[in-house]
Amino acid sequence: MKKQPEIKKTRALKNNLYCVRLMWDISRGAVIHAGLMTAFNYIAWVFYSAFFIKYLVGALNRADSFSDIFRYILLAGGFFMATAIYYAYVEGAYIPMAGVKVYHKLYRKLYQKARNVELRCFEDSSFYNKYTLAVDGANEKLIQVIINLFGIICGAIAATVVFTQMFHIDKTAVLFVFFPIIGNFVFGYIYNKYLFNRDRAMAPYKRRIEYVNRVMYLADYSKEMRLSNVFYLMKYKYLKAIDGIFDVVDQYAFKINLPLWFRNYFTFTIIFEGVLLYGAYRTIVGKTMSLSELAVLSSIMVSATWILIRFAENILESMKQGLFIENLRTFLEYEENLPEDYDGLTPEPEITSIEFRNVSFGYKKEEYIIKNLSFRIEGKKSIALVGHNGAGKTTIIKLLFRLYDPDEGEILLNDKNIKEYNLKAYRSLFAAAFQDYKVFALSIKENVLMRKGTPKDDTLVIEALKKAGVYDKVMTLPDGINTNLTKEFDEQGAQLSGGEFQKIVVARAFAKNVPIKVFDEPSSALDPIAEYDLYESILKDSFGKTMIFISHRLSSVRNADMVYMLEKGTIIEQGSHIELMDLHGAYADMYQKQAKNYLAVESLREVTA
Ligand SMILES: Nc1ncnc2c1ncn2[C@@H]1O[C@H](COP(=O)(O)OP(=O)(O)OP(=O)(O)O)[C@@H](O)[C@H]1O
After folding, report:
1. Reported ipTM
2. Where does the pLDDT of residue 466 fall: very low under 50, low under 70, confident under 90, or very high at 90 and above?
3. How far apart are CA 534 and CA 538, in angstroms?
4. What is the CATH number that goes with domain 344-429+515-609?
5. Of 210, 277, 298, 594, which alpha carbon lies 20 to 30 A from 75's?
């Protein structure tokens, strides 16, 4: 596992300030209230432990009247009652509302960014990790960062005030403060460091356990779990992971316990016992400290200890949060190489040519999947890309859609490099059905239109579903085209077969009136007859348009104007079906090997027609 690099202190500070700015932009009120709330908390703490008790002891010594003391207490009580009301309002009403606002605004930023970064980012595991870590509970963490930051500031001020008070009573007693400082900042730091390392060492085992967890409850795996012995394999992996966690706990047990013991000893025992012993000595033996001073000193000491503990916790927490902020910041500040909102020329709606000119491309640098590829499609033609698995067919489509840019060469539309076009306008020239199709937890109509739609769109949707050969099935569903797909949000949502889902996805391409249609193995989940019918529909629909399709079933490409046969990212044969058959090359060979099946399907089609 790759280690996350350590973040420098200055960077950590800048990251915290970045969070304050971000939060300030999102909700100024939340920042102000978080600051006030923390401040009131500390004021109450310091007041009661230092000033209140000091006043009371002083008043008793001075023999002030009860009404004076009562007035003072009433005043203080009134003030803190008001802060308690404020506190309750902020905690109970304001912060939850602000939390929703922060959630809404922050996630809008995050989703916008996720939508905008190039696809390559999602294949970069470190970027993807950053994204998931940044998104996970980002709003709560952001608020926590702010509260923490105010905790550090107020903690530092409160600590200075109580130590000054201690100093006034007894200069030597202040020295005891070093014990909780050492306890928290030295042993606490060592303890947290080991804790962090232990968690990191556990992480791979925890990931395995989480994976087994997922496998146990996700429906996708339930069939295999029941029909094979993979359950026992999973159980074995799970037990191995548990053993791994035991080992790690064992390995760190002593390392963690020792600094923890020292931390607690220095933080509580030495200062509590020490100050009391010292105070008692000065009061009883030395007679240099009054009983009231001893009482005030003990009270201040307790609060000083807790203030220091909180202060140290805030600092350690802030260091921990540094990683989260770093991820959030890297993600939000990432400058896209291929921004989705890239502006440029508006393409002509009439397509005269598409050209790949000496295009090379690799998902990884220097590992080209597409190698010096050149071809030109003139006018409104139907083009088929064929070839073995992994030849690079889908990659060509991804390059054409500008989901990636070529490493070398250029792609031209109407003789202009596609990089010159406004990206949204350029992509709106295409309608596509991908082989790794995805249906959304939306209605069938919305899944076809990929937008909200109005009643006027119904005819369009119905026509598209008919062309895709799934309309009859949709009509059997309770709400027809308005039936929700999947049970994600709707218990009555329709769960269709793989082939039916694919047909709905293909209907998307039929419903879009655009000059270029792309079908990437649109029939991979269809039965042979449905596949035959679908290709008939595709060819009919693409009349007067440019159509590119990928298919492994060569019978479906026979009517294409041009067929490109690919191997290892280059075109090895090109021409019409007849020309390629006459060539007696790789295409003809592949076709003949599949031919028996086509004949069978065609005769079956004739029988069932
Ligand atoms: N996102 C990706 N990251 C890294 N490598 C990839 C990625 N997508 C595809 N590849 C690799 O690129 C090569 C070409 O893949 P591509 O999907 O273009 O092939 P294809 O001809 O469409 O194959 P198939 O017929 O199986 O769909 C494959 O070897 C694949 O492993």
Report:
1. 0.97
2. very high
3. 6
4. 3.40.50.300
5. 298
